[in-house]
């Protein structure tokens, strides 16, 4: 069985929590796109694990894979391995595999990313972690791969070919060109340590599926940050929708059995770009504080707003969800009335689906439907029947409006605070 999990909004929907919940049922958990600009938080047995590259199923017995569709900063990976080891979780080569073709984020990628963002007249809100420039090199066939840093001679030949153009690019943007050659010895040492982890991810997954094993593909960010279908130019540098899992892991689309979307009971966004239901008021503060809405990677406060039905509909189209997981329902406790964005007013025209262009989406004014809220603490409730009547009505209404079934509901950050519908 092959299951794909993606975020249905702008990221930060709680995918790590859902993957952690499901991982015990799967033999393999594989990351298929993005880099350490993503952050998945897992809370288990009173401990909080903030992961950026290692798949969220690390606390279970599943085999973990990082696919060639990702871009990887090896220094960040080593920090994660060390953090997990200190918490008593040893991630050996038997536990984790990294595809030989995984692109490596180099120091010059980080430098170029930061320099370019600082010179933009209109900021994107990038994490400045080199993700975009690593993907540029992948597409431009100038990448350094995992297999390269594990072989000193191979790496140096490749690096000597690429370094001069990176030095020139950094200098052109007003930076210190010497940054391009920083940390090379450290990268080679990390490559030596990671060599036993190298594998052929596509081969592993396809063999596992042939043997009747279960594979869970984990995405980063959210559907509306997709580099093709998202709110251009305020997007990430990779394809975040479900179809990307097939390309990023090397698995044919006919092998997909389930596609699960993770969606918050409200909506958030980090960085710039349109967010039609954004609440720059007490409601926004309530959502941010109660929901702990601060970036796992950057620590930046997230922009918060009411649930956006048109954006949810588009995510369902983009991903073909077979089921949804609704997270952070508990954060809405104490808000009354609750609002759901049913559609938009764009230039005096009512529409129920997001316009394609970002500047048009920025001009959309939300049209709301109001519902009564609830004040009961739901964070300890373990099944749908226990929820207050108004909480049930909220879930049932957005499920009906989306036309997609909500199978999982989360009422808190802990592992035990998620139940099946």
TrEMBL record:
User: Which residue ranges are recorded for the region named Disordered?
Assistant: 277-296
Keywords of the record: Cytoplasm, GTP-binding, Ligase, Magnesium, Metal-binding, Nucleotide-binding, Purine biosynthesis
Which is an annotated GO molecular function term of this record?
magnesium ion binding
The residues forming the signal peptide are: none
Q: Name one GO biological process term.
A: IMP metabolic process
Active site annotated at which positions? 12 (proton acceptor), 40 (proton donor)
Top-level taxon of origin: Archaea
Q: Mind telling me which InterPro entries this protein's record contains? A: Adenylosuccin_syn_GTP-bd (IPR018220), Adenylosuccinate_synth_dom1 (IPR042109), Adenylosuccinate_synth_dom2 (IPR042110), Adenylosuccinate_synth_dom3 (IPR042111), Adenylosuccinate_synthetase (IPR001114), P-loop_NTPase (IPR027417)
Q: Which reaction does it catalyse?
A: IMP + L-aspartate + GTP = N(6)-(1,2-dicarboxyethyl)-AMP + GDP + phosphate + 2 H(+)
- Which residues are listed for IMP binding in this entry? 12-15, 37-40, 127, 141, 221, 236, 300
Q: How is the cofactor bound?
A: Binds 1 Mg(2+) ion per subunit.
Write out the pathway annotation from the protein's UniProt entry: Purine metabolism; AMP biosynthesis via de novo pathway; AMP from IMP: step 1/2
Q: What is its EC number?
A: 6.3.4.4
Q: Where can this protein be found?
A: Cytoplasm
UniProt keyword Amino-acid biosynthesis present: no
The similarity annotation says:
Belongs to the adenylosuccinate synthetase family.
Official protein name in the record: Adenylosuccinate synthetase
Which gene name belongs to this protein? purA
């Amino acid at each position: 069985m092959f299951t794909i999990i993606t975020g249905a909004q702008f990221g930060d929907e709680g995918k790590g929590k859902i993957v952690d919940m499901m991982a015990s049922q799967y033999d393999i958990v594989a990351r298929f796109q993005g880099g350490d600009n993503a952050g998945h938080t897992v809370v288990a047995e009173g401990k909080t694990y903030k992961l950026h590259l290692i798949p969220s199923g690390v606390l279970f017995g599943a085999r973990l894979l990082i696919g060639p569709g990702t871009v990887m900063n090896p220094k960040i990976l080593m920090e994660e391995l060390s953090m997990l080891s200190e918490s008593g979780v040893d991630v050996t080569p038997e536990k984790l595999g990294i595809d030989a073709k995984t692109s490596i984020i180099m120091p010059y990628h980080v430098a170029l990313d930061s320099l370019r963002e600082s010179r933009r007249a209109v900021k994107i809100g990038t994490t400045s972690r080199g993700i975009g420039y690593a993907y540029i090199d992948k597409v431009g066939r100038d990448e350094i791969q995992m297999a390269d840093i594990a072989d000193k001679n191979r790496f140096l030949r490749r690096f000597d070919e690429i370094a001069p153009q990176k030095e020139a690019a950094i200098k052109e943007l007003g930076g210190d060109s010497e940054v391009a050659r920083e940390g090379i010895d450290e990268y080679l040492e990390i490559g030596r340590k990671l060599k036993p982890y190298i594998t052929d991810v596509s081969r592993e997954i396809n063999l596992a599926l042939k043997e009747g094993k279960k594979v869970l593909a984990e995405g980063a960010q959210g559907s509306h940050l997709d580099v093709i279908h998202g709110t251009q130019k305020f997007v990430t540098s990779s394809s975040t929708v479900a179809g990307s899992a097939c390309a990023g892991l090397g698995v044919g689309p006919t092998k997909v059995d389930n596609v699960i979307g993770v969606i918050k009971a409200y909506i958030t966004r980090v960085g710039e770009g349109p967010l039609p239901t954004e609440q720059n008021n007490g409601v926004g503060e309530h959502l941010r504080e109660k929901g702990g809405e601060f970036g796992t990677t950057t620590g930046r406060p997230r922009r918060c707003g009411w649930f956006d039905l048109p954006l949810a509909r588009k995510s369902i189209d983009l991903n073909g969800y077979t089921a949804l997981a609704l997270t952070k329902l508990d954060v809405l406790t104490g808000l009354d009335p609750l609002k759901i964005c049913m559609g938009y007013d764009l230039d005096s025209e009512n529409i129920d689906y997001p316009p394609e262009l970002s500047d048009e989406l920025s001009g959309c004014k939300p049209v709301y439907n109001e519902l009564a809220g609830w004040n009961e603490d739901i964070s300890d409730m373990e099944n749908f029947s226990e929820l207050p009547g108004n909480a049930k009505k909220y879930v049932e209404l957005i499920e009906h409006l989306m036309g997609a079934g909500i199978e999982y509901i989360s009422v808190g950050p802990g592992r035990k605070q998620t139940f099946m519908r």
